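Example 3.
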Amino acid sequence: MTDTSLPAAANATSAAKIRSGAPANPLALIRRALVYLLLSIAAFVSVFPFFWMIVGATNKSADIIRGKNGFGTELFNNAATFFTQVDALRVFWNSAFIAVVGTALTLVISSLAGYGFEMFRSRVRERLFALLLLLLSIPFAALMVPLFVMFSQAKLVNTYTAVILPTVASIFIIFYFRQATKAFPSELRDAAKIDGLKEWQIFFFVYMPVMRSTYAAATIIIFMANWNNYLWPLIVLQTAENKTITLIVSALTSAYTPDYGMTLFATVLATLPTLIIFFLLQRRFVEGMLGAVK
Amino acid sequence: MSSLKLSAVRKSYGHVEVIKGVDLEIKSKEFVVFVGPSGCGKSTLLRMIAGLEHITSGDLEIGGTRMNDVDPSKRGIAMVFQSYALYPHMTVRENMGFALRFAGIAKDQIARQVGEAARILALEPLLDRLPKELSGGQRQRVAIGRAIVRNPEVFLFDEPLSNLDAELRVHMRIEIARLHKELQTTVVYVTHDQVEAMTLADTIVVLRDGVIEQVGSPLDLYDDPANQFVAGFIGSPKMNFLAATIVEKSAGSVTVELRNHAGARLNLPVAGGSVGEEVALGVRAEHFGEPGSGNADIRLNVDVAEHLGSTSYVYANAGGESLIIEREESRHEIGREHITVSISPERAYLFDSKGQRIR
Amino acid sequence: MAQARLDRREQLTGWAFIAPALILLGLFMIYPIIWSLWMSFQVGKGMNLSFGGLANIERLTKDPVFLRALGNTFTFFIIQVPIMIVLALLFAVALNDSTLRFRGLFRTAIFLPCVTSLIAYSTIFKSMFATDGIINQGLMALHIIGSPIAWFSDPFWAKVVIILAITWRWTGYNMIFYLAALQNVDRSIYEAARIDGVPAWARFTHITIPMLKPVILFTTVISTIGTLQLFDEVYNFTAGTGGPSDSTLTLSLYIYNLTFKFMPSFGYSATVSWVIVVLVGILSFLQFLVARDRRRP
């Protein structure tokens, strides 16, 4: 963790320098106050719905749509309703399996490609890469119908495979890894070759550990995308026992008169894993993003 | 401890040829330094020996075996990189043992070899640190340690000291010289710094534009440069070149006139050359004499004088030509605007219009 | 030039590294997109298809639902993307000030919405924007409105909620890109500008914006693609209808309905999806043009 605290320390010293040097004129003070006000409002607006979600999980549906803003006593009732209506264990297993396996496969396959494009440049591959960037602009809506027909013909509808496979080679993540690879010192690869490593060994034993910040950021992005993926699972997962938590929450919300207490309880459960992953990897995430934008 | 042989080695990228036919033999245990300006191909040549760059044509032999297509790890070489190239996620110990791990060597054997290398380089207290917790000099020592662990026949160094500050550079230079003495391996060392080349090398190879300009011991190159490029590259400060014209020629000698110094003339024992040819007279900064001591005196305007204590460098010019003159006893000269120095023929070199040395 | 062994091996290695991704992309992206292009010339229901030439394109021009969906999608795009980009830039610049207190806290808070799923926040927003809900109560308490707004049954306000929701979800995401890019800007450039007496607003317009231009372009293109594909939020706010009376129907939702709700009309829905492809293409190209023009002084 020392590597992450280094820039912070540098910032702190430069901050101290500026703070002592800045004149305290009234205009600057007003501007400063406005900045704090703006950020406070933004932070409040950003966080309030989370607070609302947790409060809602403890209230009755009727109270929620009447706008009751305070903790209630219905948490256990909401939980009980949810667990009787939904096979929660099964649903979470579906979500977890799809998200974890999907993330792992995407990380490996897309980073292999990003590394390959950057490390082994050739004219043909450069052209191909440009073509991929063009494909980035193709919306999923244009693909979903043919994809659905393909998976029906392959008799794979309603399987995890059908949910995971089309997301594994992500152009966005390939691009991200290629950008990040530019910061990977090529002398490390040379040194590893002299140390007797094969190309694939260099990738797994040198590149991957060295680039772990990049992988952490990518993990957050991919995991969230998989966990929250909606449209494609909605199309290919058809029986209740195969649906993900995201699909279940959506179904609960779309009911004619939704039970908001129970639904918000489900929403808390659905949001928890991504929140945990985010807070665990947050530091590396910002580091990794830095690498990608360079 | 292998010898190295390069025969007609060439390298091109597409249509651009960067190494244009290099023939070189390096004896076992020899310390060879490739030196030249940036872009001369010295690093490419080293990387070709290492197996990191493919050899377009020609042969590379290490220890008598053709190595052109052999994997870098199987050439019996180890390499120290400019940026050290330490694996940032591994401790010093793991860095040093990494190659052995992949060579399938037993753990206790690895530990022994790492321990031995650490002892030689006094790295024992640092073995469990990560590279980022080390100073530049320590990282450099670890990089060297990593190379030693592999017991290479040939050490390759790619500008290993250029990321260090001046003081540390001198220190590491001495350490590398000591190591070579202790380990008795063949070393190929690339640098752009001719001081490193002079101090470390048994043999210096001067490269320019992918071609070897001269091979020889440091003092050979200093005393006896083959051409104007080598003469200008080896030695600090740089050799001065004075524009001259051959005005007279007799059997075994010529007389040259210094074009920028009011017709000062100098007679030199040279067999070649023809009257009217434009040549360059080379004089090292330390070879100018007191006025009247040589055959030709020239008077110069002083631009700047740097007084280093034991010696001084005077930057002076005449007729648009800048010269550097080293004076050992010059305290009385501080503040002077003009200086007169003398050139002796026995201390002067002469280069023809193509830069080839004719004396 | 003789192709040599190491070079050839490196060539092969290069292909080996990208091969898995290429195969998957070919199968699940390139093949479907070509298939869909071919489909857009087919007419008929279900699997009874026949070549119809440009009949689908003709149908597009006469289809009021499609035109409504196109209009809605454009409205979301034109209003939402600029608001979000400006907000994200504003927050990023404010948070890049190293003298600011609670930077980490603010940054995390503003980024937090990205962690929720589109569905989760649709649910939350739906409950907050209920007619007697917390938002109406809040606005009435602040005397901004006199009587509750029927957010989801009014065509105008339904669009507003969707725009608010998307902005809430994605502003922090874009902000992180800008923050990352800003941290790469050498601080001494700003210090030099301050010493040269360049005022704060000019530092923003003449240093920050030009430095961030590539990232701004990137996020704009990504946001454009995202907005033109808008589906999850609308589907959940409106239980899949795009109501009230198609006022929030988007192109993606329409394609979904054409394929999976009504008797599947693969050819026609493929044509609608190609409308999105073409739109994204045109808009991205325009954005590149704008970014390039501004580069000239």
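Chain A touches chain B through 18 residues (CB under 8 Å). Confidence is low (pLDDT under 50) at residues 1-21 of chain A.
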